[in-house]
Amino acid sequence: MGTFDLLLQGLMAALEPMMLVYALIGVTLGTAVGVLPGIGPALTVALLLPVTYRLDPAGSLIMFAGIYYGGMYGGSTTSILLNTPGESASIVTALEGNKMARKGRGGPALATAAIGSFIAGLIATLLLAFIAPWVVRFALSFGPADYFALMVLAFITVSAAFGDSALRGITALFIGLGLGLIGIDLQTGQTRLAFGIPDLLDGIEVTTLAVALFAIGETLKVACSPTHLKEEVEAIKGSVWMTIEDWKRSWASWLRGTFIGFPIGAMPAGGADVASFLSYSAERNFSKHPEEFGEGAIEGVAGPEAANNASAAGTLVPLLTLGLPTTATAAIMLAGFQQFGLQPGPLLFANNATLVWALIASLLVANLMLLVLNLPLIGLWVRLLTIPKPWLYAGILSFATLGTIGANAAVMRIWGVSFSFELLLLLAFGILGYLLRRFGYPIAPVVVGLILGPMAEQQLRRALAISQGDPAVLFASPVAIVLYVVAALALLLPVFLRLRGRGQLLGQLATDED
Amino acid sequence: MTDRANVTRRPDGAALVIAAVLAVIAAVIFWQTAQMRVVAVYARVGPTTFPYIVATGLAVLSVLTALSALRGSFPAREKDNHGPMFWIVGGLLAQMFLMFPLGFSVATGILFAMTAAGFGQRRFWFSLPVGIVFAFFIWLVFARGLQLSLPSGPLEAAAMSLFSSMSGGA
Amino acid sequence: MNKLLLAALVTGALAQPVFAQDYTIMAPAAPGGGWDQTARTIQQVLQDEGIAGNVQVTNVPGAGGTIGLAQFVNQAQGNPSQLIVGGYVMVGAILTNQSPVTLDNVTPIARLTGESVAVVVPANSPIQTIDDLTAALKENPGAVSWAGGSAGGADHILAGLYAQAVGVDPTQINYIAFSGGGEALAAILGGQVTVGVSGYGEFASQVEAGELRLLAISGQNRLEGVDAPTLSEAGVDVVLENWRMVAAAPGITPEQEAEINADIAAMVESDGWQTALADRGWVDTYLAGDEFKAQLAEDIAATDGILRQIGLVQ
């Protein structure tokens, strides 16, 4: 058991008092910046990474791990409480989490997110430590055709977030797909739908769209709607803690989320957002309370949050074993690792054993520290909701625009007037978000379309280019076939459940379509 | 959520506008894609295929939305106030255009005060200074402390030179 | 705890010297990317070595750096304290995006680092040498799938130049573009494609571990400690290096240009810079002044030629 000894040794080092202090500082900083609406984990890590440079390698590693986890958890907090996800992976969390918060159940929502994240992080980090080489082999066996099948599956699962009308859900999805077309086509270098605006050549930034639709759209809706404006949100109704019922409903979701999130995160073209979509749809299918979905079902927070965190640990599999950064956050982490003298790649575990195990131990300790710091703070976070609306939303808009302009400081000049095109997009999409809400369109499918559309298109075209145009390649691998079967099941299972008379909501969906 | 009994079964004007907008978007995508030069690729599925699929989908959805609008099967809407909309959108526009001449703090302070006004807090003599101080504090932490690139203007420059003369002069 | 940290950050922010800014460096890329890292390394070394008092970095990402470049040219005109980081990718992007602003609009200062593009195959591929690859390409160009970065980037250009050099029509190459972050590497390791082209750094650890076979590298000279020929040595007359540079504003005086040149030269010679390069695995290919300008003109001409051939530029 060499692996186990090495891990123990790493843990011993990471548990020294000074190291625990560094972990705590990292988690605090990460949470503090990550909690700002509109600032996602990638930006949080990029901003705070330099803070770690001044410490010795072991100290900076552990502080870095803390920032990483803190940033991710901070993002979920605002998603749940304020309906303002700062990145694509917390969108699903906002779906159910914010409904819970509106009902005064923000405490249990935050708790299930924190504990779920901890459990997922723990299991996934241990999986990373012990089975990374096998997982990576599996992940590499995915070719473009298999990814396309995965995208098809993900598309089908989006329907779980459609709300009460399939027509409006699909329309929202197609708006996202349309936005996804904008920019330079990766395969041919041709420009699509950019209308001669250079700032559109790289396409629409997912973060900008998500922050606009959620943070700005929500602000406009709350301000303009007489009922929303008067609505008194009670920060805590009942217990701030999870009830026994909540625990019962959460634990299986945490585990399912973990086992969906880890492998998807490990895939070079997977990602936490896809994992969280799949987890949400799985929870909806498995839940004993499908009628609560869309109204604040705790499973819909527990599963995706666990999937999100497990996927983040999964991302480390290709990052450490292949040197493959598969997300924006991972790319920034790679830069960080190099700073510490870690050279990710197949020889990492052989050449840098001490540092790798120190990193893994750091992740475990930081994960624990996150729970220690944030569980007691839940009562405080929930009180964010008691800030008077004028100041709360004024603050949200300030931070949302800060994140946007900070990541993209481009200046556009028209007729001698300088302005930020990215802020213009933010405003335009914010108004779109308001209109969608006003006319009963769901928001999440728009963002999902923007994320999945280009991925599906590129993978399909890659697969067909490699096969020189032979469509048989799409069904050639067992992985793809399995994924199509799961997709078919995901499509048919709700129908089956409805036949058994279990989902009134699903039944309503059908009558809506007549 | 929607109480289906309350739905007014008559043509929904706004929903018809949505249908028209979807049709326009579909037409724009068709038109722009038709302008593209098609190069032969091994994949056979080129850069124009997906745009055509999306445009077709939007066109179909436009028709379905129109039908749904005529049947009046959109959920009932409450009457929204428009005043707050003007305040908040105005605040965002003001911030966007004032960001570069006046710097982050002043522009964001104005956004802050106008958003608060949208929510009924119209005491500008209070909200504007609070907003500017708040934004300046953010600017300090993010632009100076964390090296995020945020636009600076006269206020930031003046404050920094004041600080430096204080620390330098002492 | 929170307030304490915030207070520390703020005092830290205030404690920085705030005299006239010596340099503002634009990284025409998002935080965390290659150009951003280059800009931030320059910032750090200039400050740590006392070459400049205060250095700021701004990020203006988009369209292969052309958005940042256009903004730089507009705003920095005649301002000797403004610098921009860029690289070979920009040369291609300016051409394919028909950017109204080109590198002629800035004052090139120096090439700082360079990376060879590597041509690799999976370890179990039947292709053993460059000659095998050439033979396969000549037999059926469509059957050889090339994995690399986005269309029109350095990797695609190399594949085009390769085909051209061995007498295959560059429009016939079956180039599969992957988005950055090593997605291409995964496809190569998984045996999804025939051959991979990307910066050597992305493949280095896989080559060392024997998972990939390095057929050749695209630079002028062999890499130290790497057992692979250059493309020219292997009989394909192509040289391509993916370099990064720093440039100054347009319209500055020759004296100002000389001053910036001196600062950058001092930076490159410093221990801090050399350590940073070693840490990040960057190869020092410092080239300044007129020699660099001549090299740049040559690169632009060659790139323009091949992009027209491939059909990405009319």
From TrEMBL, chain A:
It holds the Pfam family TctA. The keyword Aminoacyl-tRNA synthetase does not apply. Signal peptide: none annotated. Keywords: Membrane, Transmembrane, Transmembrane helix. The chain crosses the membrane at residues 20-49, 61-82, 109-135, 147-163, 169-186, 316-335, 355-379, 391-411, 417-436, 443-460, 472-497. Residues 20-447 form the DUF112 domain. This is Tripartite tricarboxylate transporter TctA. It comes from Devosia geojensis.
TrEMBL record, chain B:
Keywords: Membrane, Transmembrane, Transmembrane helix. The keyword Transmembrane applies. The chain crosses the membrane at residues 12-32, 52-74, 86-112, 124-142. Coiled coil: none annotated. Pfam families: TctB. Residues 17-151 form the DUF1468 domain. This is C4-dicarboxylate ABC transporter. It comes from Devosia geojensis.
TrEMBL record, chain C:
Keywords: Signal. The keyword Zinc does not apply. Residues 1-20 form the signal peptide. InterPro entries: BUG (IPR005064), Bug_dom1 (IPR042100). Belongs to the UPF0065 (bug) family. This is C4-dicarboxylate ABC transporter substrate-binding protein.
